[in-house]
Amino acid sequence: MKREIIQTLDGSTTIQLTEWNECYHSKHGAIQEAQHVFMKNGLSLFQNQEIAILEIGFGTGLNAFITLLESIKMNQTIDYVGVEAYPISAAEVLKMNYVEELEAKLESSTFEKIHECSWEEKVMLNDSFSITKRKQFFQDIEDENRFDLIYFDAFGYRVQPELWSTEVFRKMYNALKTNGILVTYAARGVVKRSMIEVGFTVEKLAGPPGKREMFRARKL
User: Fold this and answer.
1) pLDDT tens digits for 29-73?
2) CA–CA separation, 63 vs 67, rounded Å?
3) Are 84 and 109 in contact (CB under 8 A)?
4) What is the DSSP letter of 185?
5) What is the pLDDT of residues 94-123, one digit of tens each?
């Protein structure tokens, strides 16, 4: 499938799969979407805490990188696990402009390490942030009661509805600790019904630029 690096409306880059007309991040702003969906409505609820995060769709590493930057401000200790079935290439990583757009040049080596570190191996990026990248299909996740927060950032329902199935959300529910939270940019009724079916309590929130709404789900 043909892949193209494009610039989104906030100046940050993303990868577009041209045959699907689908992007790794919102065309309205890759960084803005990550900040709004995953940081503001997810990570910020855990200030001054030690937490474990599961990212569904590691992709370009943007969410992991912003989480590391934000965790320093929020005094958090993070155990981060990113799941990706099809890792992006080194050439694509080099074309991502996140360090510049986030004004994080002091952490440029950290962004590189996020992508250079081995898969299936826990790596310390600093004294309070570890990352484990797992090359894995979402349907094969078997974690139980491990995570406080899930970033659900799979490709959209329009192109891969199987990633938004009741089966997958049951795995997400099982992977979360009690009172754990899942956040996603999605706001389709079929997605909400699947979440509720497996036990989640779901709330609809204002979406990031270009999207009216998004979901946040909690395991009670």
Assistant:
1) 999 999 999 999 999 999 999 999 999 999 999 999 999 999 999
2) 6
3) no
4) S
5) 999 999 999 999 999 999 999 999 999 999
Q: Which DSSP category does 87 fall into?
A: P
**β-pairing, 213-218 with 176-184?**
antiparallel
Q: Residue 148, class by beta-carbon neighbours within 10 Å (0-12 exposed, 13-18 middle, 19+ buried)?
A: buried
Q: Where are the alpha helices (DSSP H) in 35-152?
A: 62-73, 90-94, 98-101, 108-116
Q: Are strands 147-152 and 129-135 parallel, antiparallel or unpaired?
A: unpaired
Q: Map tokens 């942030």 to a residue.
A: 129
Q: Which domains does the chain have, with CATH numbers?
A: 29-218 (3.40.50.150)
Task: Give every strand in the sheet of 3-7, ordered side by side.
Answer: 3-7, 13-17, 22-23
User: Closest Cα to residue 139, out of 187, 172, 176?
Assistant: 172
Q: Which tokens in the block code for residue 11?
A: 């100046």
